[in-house]
Specification:
This protein has eleven helices and ten strands. It starts with a strand and ends with a strand. The protein is α/β, with parallel strands linked by helices and 289 residues long. The chain binds nicotinamide-adenine-dinucleotide.
Length: 289
Amino acid sequence: MKTIGIIGAGQMGSGIAHVCALAGLDVRLLDANAEALPKAVAGIDKNIERQVQRGKVKAEDKAAALKRISTSADYASFGDCDLVIEAATENEAVKREVFKKLCPVLKPEALIASNTSSISITRLAATTDRPAKFIGMHFMNPVPLMQLVEIIRGIVTDDKTFEIIKALTAKLGKTAAVAEDFPAFIVNRILLPMINESVYTLYEGVGNVESIDTAMKLGANHPMGPLELADFIGLDTCLAVMHVLYDGLADSKYRPCPLLVKYVEAGWLGRKTKRGFYDYAGEKPVPTR
Ligand code: NAD
């Protein structure tokens, strides 16, 4: 494993590029939005610099890692990749389109991983020309700080692919948890219904943003409140995961809260748009309800 392609240079794609480059891998980063690429590289530079300041990374390793990252809007740049990790927007149609463009340029032995939070790995794999070499590699946000990678085998994923991805996870300094390919896997199957319930708690007026987050931080010892966490994940991603749970498990307990739907319709997606359950325009986040 020498060269890794990453599709989607948003918060997850950037984080994955960051850890791969620091682990000595060559990284090719692609995004449909040309503006996302320089922004991603600047973000990675800033985040590795923070690790340098804390004494976690040597300055020369930072320089070498940044040199290993190249960006392009052309899929041909993935021709020499051993693995391509897809981290585009959580929308099945978008991901299908990505794989349609990706497969023809890949070398035959190249693997494909998806960082999807919830979509069936087996179904995504079936849209490619190599379902046995397709796997779920679900990094957590923020990637450089979070220890876990959930590894999800599709029903067709072969043992070799699974072993290679397990070894890569270890090389990146992460710990793997293996999940079966059911909607939202392990982490989000448990986490997102809790977040959705916290939005219901807000919607029904049981608490306001501040009381709900304070209650869960101090009452359940969570490092972040559920609404703060929802803003951090992205409300569009949260809603997409709830839809996958609702549709995939056909159980009304997973119905997305109408208030979450309304925020997404308004374009209030959390930190990335500077407004969600908190307003991030000022120095300190301010609750909006
Ligand atoms: P994001 O909105 O920050 O970034 C998504 C990026 O994909 C954007 O830069 C967008 O321009 C790009 N994109 C959209 N369509 C594209 C296309 N057709 N081709 C190439 N690029 C395209 O989202 P994110 O939070 O980085 O999420 C990306 C993936 O990671 C999703 O599948 C999400 O479910 C998953 N994920 C997210 C989190 C989280 O906490 N945010 C955690 C784990 C996994």
